[in-house]
Amino acid sequence: MRRFDYLIFALFLGLLSFASLEAQAVENSLTGKACSLAKILDPHLPCDKAAITSPETITDREALWSVIHTICIPAAAIGFNYPCLRVDNKDGYVVIRTPDKEKIDFLIAPTRKMAGVESPDLLKGDAPNLWAAGWKERALVAEVARKKLSWNDYALAVNSRQTRSQDQLHIHLGCVDRNLKRYFAVHKEYRPANNWVIIRLSNINSDLLMKALPADGLSQNLFAKISSEAPWARLFIDKQTVALIAIEDKSFKGFVLLVSLDRVSAESFLAKSC
């Protein structure tokens, strides 16, 4: 992390005034809540451990929302995209990379407070389309992977209330799990697109509801679609782990929407690397 990046944290948490800060002063002054929030995004940041006065920001389920609301949005207002890589106020989302740099994993999260998949605001007409936003931002994955990726290399997934660690809605964006990619290269039961079917994947060990979507199918509200169409989904809305897998072969280009009502993590659908 560059020294000037520290200035962004300090500025919005009121540690020192922007005009008087120098890079070294920022590094030395990064204490308390600023240090804790920063460590969520960069665990190797050289903060003094004694400066973290409360465990709330590291273990708190509101930590992600704190980063978005306290740092990312104010920083973007003056032209800085850090720590969030993107703050899109028009479409209502941010993009942020997870702290584990061993994985290629980006988070797409709303700029307003939404706890998770069970949020009733997700079913409303003005809900941000996070699936479409994630797909639009997929070039970030290829950039980190440092190679050209195909349509069917990508996947997005969101955890249920039971399997998530943060109470701010966020969709994971990365490369599809290799076993899943091989499965859909062989099995074609995701067609026709007008029916939900049940499949069981050995590597996930869970029954999954599945429905195909055309390439332009992300313009709709997928959370509302699942709630209104998928069997039992509305009854167990907080138990849904949802994945969107990009599919391309000679006869079909689009997506499959997968819904698990078991304790399946979103990360089960994603590869650590591309």
Describe the structure.
With 274 residues, the chain is of the alpha+beta class. It has 2 domains: 3-77, no CATH class; 91-271, HIT family, subunit A (2-Layer Sandwich), CATH 3.30.428. The chain has helices at residues 3-12, 23-29, 32-41, 56-59, 63-77, 130-136, 139-145, 178-186, 222-229, and strands at residues 86-88, 93-97, 106-110, 154-158, 171-176, 197-201, 206-214, 241-248, 253-260, 270-271. Strands 1, 2, 3, 4, 5, 6, 7, 8, 9 and 10 form a 10-stranded antiparallel beta sheet that branches. The two termini are 24 Å apart.
CATH fold description of the largest domain = HIT family, subunit A
CATH superfamily of the largest domain: HIT family -  CDH-like
Count of DSSP helices?
9
The whole-angstrom Rg is: 20 Å
Low-confidence stretches: 1-34, 45-59
Largest sheet: 10 strands, antiparallel
What series of H and E elements makes up the topology? Answer: HHHHHEEEHHEEHEEHEEE
Q: What's the mean pLDDT score?
A: 80
Helical percentage: 25-40%
Name the beta content range: 15-25%
Q: Tally the beta strands.
A: 10
Number of structural units classed as domains: 2
In terms of structural class, how would the helical and strand content be classed? alpha+beta
**What is the CATH top level name of the largest domain?**
Alpha Beta
User: How far apart are the first and last residues' alpha carbons, in Å?
Assistant: 24 Å
Give a short synopsis of this structure.
This protein has 274 residues and is α+β, with helices and mostly antiparallel strands. The chain contains 9 helices and 10 strands.
